[in-house]
Amino acid sequence: MKAFRSHLLSQAPMLWVALMPLLAQAQSAPAAGKSTLGIAAITPTASLKQTVDKAGKTLSLGQVVESLDSQLMDRFNATRKFELVSRSDLASVIKEQDLGGSGNLDARSVARIGELTGAKHILVTTVDNFQDITRKEELKIQKEVLTAREIRLSAVGKIYVTQSGKLLESANFQTATNKLVTEFATASVEGNRTDDLLVAIARDTADKIANRVADVIFPARVLTKREKQIMINRGDGTGVALGQVWNVFAVGEELLDPDTKESLGREEVLVGKARVVSIQPKTATAELFEDNGVAVGAVLRRPAGISP
Question: Could you tell me if 103 and 127 lie in one domain?
Answer without folding.
Answer: yes
